[in-house]
Structure formats: C-alpha cells, structure tokens
Amino acid sequence: MVRSSNKKLLKDNEVVVLGLLDESPRYGYELDKIIDGRGIREWTNIAFSSIYSVLRGLEKRDLLSSGSYVYNNRFVKEYRITRKGKELLKDTVASLLSEPRERKSELDLGIANILALSAEESKACLKSRQKKISARIRYIEKARKKKAKSAPYYVQALFERPISKHKAELEFVKDLEKKVEKSIEIERKTRQKDTRDEID
Questions:
Q1: Contact, 51 vs 32, CB < 8 A?
Q2: Which has the minimum average pLDDT: 10-14, 173-177, 184-188?
Q3: How far is residue 122's CA from residue 132's CA, in Å, rounded to a whole number?
Q4: In whole angstroms, what is the distance from residue 126 CA to residue 103 CA?
Q5: Where does the pLDDT of residue 6 fall: very low under 50, low under 70, confident under 90, or very high at 90 and above?
C-alpha cells in the first residue's frame, strides 16, 4: 500500500544513510565501506566527508541516535535509526517508488538550443556523446561484475537500471543524429539549388 504523507521527505543522501542504518546499526566508516562496496556513489552524490554531516543533521532531527563504544582500544560512535527516522524513511521510500519524478536534463537543454550550432557541429557533439555513453555503460557493467555479483536483487537493480537508462539514451541520441544528418543533406541540396539558380 502506498503511504501518503504531508511530511517533508528526506533528501537523497539522508535516504542512503538512514536506509543503511535501518538494515543494522553502524559506525561511520562502515557506512562509507558499504556505500563504496554497493556502488551507491554511481547513482547518488555522497562523499566520505558528507556522510558525517548527514549523520549530524539526522541526529539533530532525532531521526537517528548514537552511542560511543570502545572498539580496538579507541572510542567509536555507533549510529542507530530511531522510530521517527524509520517512519520518515518509509514515507520517503514509498514516495520514491510510487511517484515518477522528472530529473532536469542537460541533454534537453542542449536539444532546445541545438540551432546555436551548425548541423555539422551538432552531429559531432552527438557522436561524442554516444562514445561517452558507451564508455559509461562499459564502466557500470564492469563495476556490476565486480561489486554486485552475489549481491541481493535490489543491489543488482542499482546497477541494471542505469545501464538500461544509458542504453535507451544511446538509442535516442543515435536517432537524433540521423535527424541531424537528414537536415545536413537538406541544407546541402538547398545550397546546391541556390548555387544553380545563381548560375542560371
């Protein structure tokens, strides 16, 4: 059942951290190792240093609690999700899974202004984008083989979705390049016709 809530939902980095704490209480460095091991940085912007600022912010809002313990002869801080944190995490995850959201796309902005370039320049840019998308697909597939081989289905899905998304974009960009190629051909024919008309 989809949960409905008027609460302010969690930010992406907060969802990552609380989601991992919902699995089990963890130390800060453990969170970083798991984030790296699961390839979470492939699809969200979370640096090692930002983990601690996210933890502090969540603790101030009573979405997690912490306790200090001695581990290997040094004090470490262990973090746990609170009941309030679990409720807000559930609301946010339900919203993320049930509500499609459009992300802003630089590609759309480029397409909207494509006439700023000549057709030849546009074609060269689209060719370049295709190479970069293909390289990105190879990179994620390699990471998936390395990191998600025996991972649970939901971790594997975090690699599969961007691969399928990039493949779909690659096909779209190839199709757009064909349309640009067609416009180049039309431009060429128009120029040839204008030249013939001038001669006549």
A1: yes
A2: 184-188
A3: 15
A4: 21
A5: low
Phi, psi of 50 (to 5 degrees): -75, -20
Helix (H/G/I), strand (E/B), else coil: 23? helix
CA distance 53 to 119: 47
Q: CA-to-CA distance for 108 and 140, rounded, in angstroms?
A: 23
Q: How many CB atoms lie within 10 A of CB 138?
A: 12
Looking at every residue in the chain, the average pLDDT score rounds to 86
Contacts of 77 (CB under 8 A, 6+ apart): 27, 28, 66, 67, 68, 69
pLDDT tens digits for range 132-148: 999 999 988 988 888 76
pLDDT tens for 50-87 read: 899 999 999 999 999 999 888 788 888 999 999 999 99
pTM of the model: 0.70
Q: What band does 98 get if pLDDT is binned at 50, 70 and 90? A: confident
Q: Which residue has the tokens 């190792």?
A: 33
The CB-side HSE value for 95 (13 A sphere, CA atoms) comes to: 17
CA distances from 79 to 84, 86, 101 (A): 14, 13, 31
Contacting residues for 75 by C-beta, under 8 A, at least 6 apart: 68, 69
